[in-house]
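Q: What changes when magnesium ion is included in the input?
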Amino acid sequence: MSSSTAEFESVELPKDHEFRFEVPYGAIMNLKIISGTAEYFGTEIPQHVLYKFSGEKGCIYTWHLDCVIQYSGPCTYKIASDTSMVSYLDVHAMIQKKREEAAQGSKKGPKVILVGPTDVGKSSLTKCLVSWASREKHNVIYIDVDIGQGNITVPGMISALQITQPLPIGRTEIPFYTPLCYFYGGVTFSDNPLLYKNQMDNLSRDVDMRCTNSPEVSSAGFIVNTCGWIEGLGYQLIIDTIEKFHCDIILVLGNDPLYENLRSKYNKGDVTVCKVPKSSGVVVRNPDFRRKARFERFKEYFYGSLGELKPHSLTISFDDVVLLKPSLNQDSNTISLIQMRPTEELVNSVVGVSHTKEHENVMSSNLAGYLVIEKVNIAQKNITVLSPSSGPLPFKYILVGTLKWMNK
Ligand SMILES: Nc1ncnc2c1ncn2[C@@H]1O[C@H](COP(=O)(O)OP(=O)(O)O)[C@@H](O)[C@H]1O
Ligand SMILES: [Mg+2]
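A: The predicted holo structure follows.
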């Protein structure tokens, strides 16, 4: 492992090797490719373009000779030859074949899901598969049902994104996408598994509609990234996800018993269950790193990944918002929306603005965006929220869960 804080240092990256790096939170590493070619989780890195990384553990990989990287800033790195990229490209080729068959009209596009414990490389492989597909002009739908990390949007939500170009690298100034998001409002499934299932129903309905309306999207198919909880309720939710999305390619990373269970349950007819090697470079993220990663995702939403956005404090009368908490109704085993009185306990809550004007549609609607409750003024009957935009709220129904965030 080498370490440096000096101005640009050059590193030669041999063919089929990884430059595995870690940059701490609060520090920025600048990196560029000055010769040859390389990619970051499936996205090609153009030569002489400066990228910034902060609070990131990742790897730059090259398929070819003569790759030279230059970097500056505090980071630790090592050059590794024990990469899984060739196996991952084989997985991509298998999926791509299905896309091509679907594009010729003979079959449906691939519906892929990645499952396995935490820190085996599911999210990283998902990114590679999505970006490689995009580079071959197949605009897949990228679905993230991992409420713990929030790869597409902030943590606590499930979301989908129609990919139109390879995923961005490191910290980019302007995110190019607007995802479709549904509110869960916490980072633990066991708090309300029924709400999670309800929101998966919503998301799978929308994805299905998108595929029905567009032959190109249908033949490109979709890729679902899941969380690392694979036992008990976690296993049941994996089964639920596979069935709701009618997945027909199940990629299992890093856990043989899970692979055996899913293989004996699903590996028949048109469904393929594949064992995929755990990424050899994968880094175990301790609870503190995960907490910091979640914190950063919220910060990025409001302030931009490089601090380029300016959120606004809006003061809104109690009369202009309706705070709703999705709660489990034990008797009927359904989700009810409980209207909440604004109280100081809500300060620092991250809440979702429901994209509907009708109360009865809140449970089936996606989100227009997120707010943080900064202040509740009972005497003056108003709340102050941190909002990404300066105008009045577009919708008045606000979903509340257990997510909290404080910018400190
Ligand atoms: N080959 C690699 N080299 C260095 N870091 C990697 C590599 N593959 C993955 N990582 C990092 O390891 C961490 C865990 O990987 P991730 O794909 O998020 O695992 P999972 O989704 O299974 O929990 C992430 O920070 C990711 O960027
Ligand atoms: Mg993950």
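Observations recorded in class: The chain has three domains: 2-83, 85-276, 312-399.
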